[in-house]
Write a structure and sequence with these properties.
Low-confidence stretches: 76-85, 309-314
Distance between the termini: 65 Å
Number of helices: 18
Strand order of the largest sheet: 4-5-6-10-8-7
Shape: elongated
Number of strands: 12
Structural class: alpha+beta
Order of helices and strands: HEEEHEEEHEEHHEHEHHEHHHHHHHHHHE
Radius of gyration: 29 Å
Length: about 425
Amino acid sequence: MTGNEFIEDLFFLFKIKQNEDTLKYTWSSQGIKLKEVDRVLQLFDEIENVAENKFTIYHNNNEGKEVAEVAVSIDFYKYRRLADEEFYKKIEDNDNQIEYEIGGEATDYYIVWIYKKMFEKYPTNMKTEVRQKIHRVLGTRGKVRYRRELNDGDKEISLLSIMRRAVDCITLKVTKQKESKINLDEAIESFSYTYMCNMNSPIKMYSLEEIIGILNRRQKEKNIDFAAPKRKYNSNLIDYYNLAISSEDPFISFISYYHIIEYYFDEVYREQQINTLRTSITSPRFSYKDDKQLFNIIEKIIKDNRFVRENGSGNEQQSLNYVLNKYIHDLDDFKQRLNNEELNFYQNKSVSFSKGDVINWDKDKDKILKAISNRIYKTRNALIHSKSSKKDVTYHPYLHRNELEKEISLIKIVAEYIIENDAVYLM
C-alpha cells in the first residue's frame, strides 16, 4: 500500500471530498476544511520503518527514548464516565529506568499504524460483512466528531482527530531511558499481569477488530418462528450449551461444547465394551469350550482397554469416536446444518495450530466421523495443553483466535446432535 492509496482509503471511509480547484480538502457539503492530511501522509511514510510485534509497535519519542506501545482493553464507558485518575496511570520504575503510562490517548504513530493494518486486512474492494460494518461504524463515529467540532464554531477539522475519535483506541506506553537494559516486550507482559491482578480486569487485546471496536463476533442465526418444545433435555448439557452460545470468546465456546460431547464418554465406552463381549458370546458360532475363541475375546477387550484409566473410564479419543457413532445417525442432515462455505472450509483446510484433520465429505460414514473426531480432539488438546515441548500444536490467542472461530460451527452441531438425540418426549 502506498501513501496515496492510504489517503484515498481514509477519504472513502469517512466520505471526504476533495476540491480539485483549490487543492483544499473539504468534508461534507458545508465546506469545513480538512487539515493535517500531509501530517497523516508523513506518519504513514515513517511507520513503514517501525518495528512491530503482534499489536505492539516500537518507536522513539521526541526525546529520542525508545517507546513500546500496545492497545489495551479498558471499559470505554467507565473511562468516559468516571474520574480519569482511576484509569490514567503513569508509573516510574527508577531502579530499572523505565516508565509505564496507561489510559492516555494513543500516539499519532499508533493511530496511523492501526488504520494501515485495517486497510491491509480489509481492502476497500473486499465485499464482506465485516468490511461493511467497519465502514458503517467508523464512518458514524467520524460524523459524531465532525458535528461536535462544527457546533463549536470550528471552520477546520483535523484528519488525525477524525481517525482518533473513530477508533477510540487507548494504549499502554512503555518508555525506557537510554541507559536502561530492560526488554520492552518483557516489561509489557510484566505490567499487564500486575495490572490485571490489582485491577481485576482484563487488559490484553487479541484481534484488530477488538482494537478498533468492531468485534468480529460469530454470526448467530436466529429463528423467531419456533414452536413449543416437544422434548425434555438434560439440564446439565443445557447449562454448558448456554455458556457456549453466550460467550464471545471462541476458547470458552469450544470447551463448553466439548463438555457436552465428553459428558457421555464413560457411559458410551462401557456400553461399547459390554456390546463387544455380548456380540461375541451370543454368536451362533461361539463355543465356550473353544479356548482359541475365548482367548480372542480376551485379547480384543485387553486391546480396547489398553489406555483405560484407573476409574474405569476409557481412552478419551476412542470414547469420542464411540459418542459420535452413537449420536450422529444421519450425515446428510448433519451436513445440511453447515453452509457451503463451512463444508468447503472443513474439507480443504486443516487446523494450523492443532494439526486438525480435513474432513472429506465424499468418504463413507465411518471415515467422515473419524475425521470429525480427529479434528475436534486435536483442537481440544491444543486448547487445553500448553506444553513447552509442543509449541507447534498449542493455541495462542493472539495468533489463532480468528481461526478457532471457524471451528465453532462444527463442534456446535455435534453438541446439538448429542443434546437432541439424548432427549426424551415431554410427558
